[in-house]
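Budget justification aside, the reviewers requested a transparent look at the raw inputs and outputs of the sequence design task funded under Objective 1. We therefore reproduce one unedited record. The lines immediately below are the structure tokens for a 275-residue chain.
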């Protein structure tokens, strides 16, 4: 049976095995999807061994998305733009790297949350791998403005510079900012930082939220709760990262199997499962 896995460190709490098992059952695909805990200095070695043992591809999570991108022989356009990969397919002619995080986030915001992004003002917080993965697809949704705010402003400037041509192509006003000076009244605020992991609280002032704004944290479960509480306390609609997780997985499933699973029922079942 074809084997897949989520590769990262840590991986024990990943919901990806459950999600892909649900997709496989729904589409009648025969596959086995597990977890691959990779030592911090042993990502490549762990993946090569997995491929030798029948692995056909993997999802890549923290902290290996940049390394996965470097490792591949071929890369999709969206992976090239991000400089990071969350999906690897072990093709015979060389490993293929893709990045489905951006399209996953976009589908969750536009379709699941019902918020078309065209003409909107977006604040994206963070300039690590998570932000890099979604910035290009967010720009392609043609918002009026996208501000990229980060604690280390130089990293935000670097990401803005590497996406400047895309921003121009889609006529988006793209700029970098410091966390305490990113502006106010955004329609959509996306938290792509690890601040909640570090227990550091909300990285931006509440003035960034327009009344009724969508405030999405890429985390889910208890880690997302402080951000969701903050959103609710300031008149915004909070949303966790579970929808993005399921949507990026659906896109990865298609990259591997050539079949698109239905995501809505799987997201609803996952929410029920996690309580
Ligand atoms: P990922 O791949 O998940 O994006 P990362 O590359 O380590 O992980 O990036 C983490 C992001 O969270 C960065 O934007 C980081 O800010 P810096 O670039 O300044 O390090 C941000 N971050 C982490 N801890 C934070 C905190 N306590 N407050 C604000 N931002 C934080």
């Amino acid at each position: 049976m074809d084997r897949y896995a989520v590769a990262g460190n840590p991986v024990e709490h990943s919901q990806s095995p459950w999600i892909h098992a649900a997709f496989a059952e729904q589409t009648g695909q025969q596959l086995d999807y597990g977890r691959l805990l990779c030592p911090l200095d042993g990502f490549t070695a762990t993946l090569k061994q997995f491929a030798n043992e029948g692995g056909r591809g993997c999802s890549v999570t923290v902290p290996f998305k940049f390394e996965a991108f470097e490792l591949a022989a071929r890369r999709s356009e969206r992976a090239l733009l991000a400089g990071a990969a969350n999906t690897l397919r072990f093709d015979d002619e060389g490993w293929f790297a893709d990045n489905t995080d951006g399209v996953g986030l976009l589908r969750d915001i536009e379709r699941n949350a019902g918020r078309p992004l065209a003409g909107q003002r977006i604040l994206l917080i963070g300039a690590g791998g998570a932000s890099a993965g979604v910035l290009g697809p967010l720009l392609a949704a043609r918002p009026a403005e996208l501000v990229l705010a980060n604690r280390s402003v130089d990293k935000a400037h670097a990401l803005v510079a590497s996406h400047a041509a895309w921003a121009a192509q889609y006529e988006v006003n793209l700029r970098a900012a410091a966390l305490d000076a990113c502006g106010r009244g955004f329609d959509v605020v996306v938290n792509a930082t690890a601040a909640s992991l570090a227990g550091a609280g909300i990285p931006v002032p509440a003035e960034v939220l327009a009344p009724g704004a969508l405030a999405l944290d890429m985390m889910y479960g208890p880690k997302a709760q402080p951000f969701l509480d903050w959103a609710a306390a300031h008149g915004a609609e909070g949303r966790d990262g579970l929808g993005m997780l399921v949507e990026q997985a659906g896109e990865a499933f298609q990259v591997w199997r050539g079949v698109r699973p239905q995501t809505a029922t799987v997201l609803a079942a996952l929410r029920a499962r996690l309580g």
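The pocket of 2'-monophosphoadenosine-5'-diphosphate is lined by residues 62, 126-130, 150-152, 155, 192-195, 198, 200, 203 (CB under 6 Å). The chain has a mean pLDDT of 96. Computational costs for records of this kind are itemized in the attached budget.
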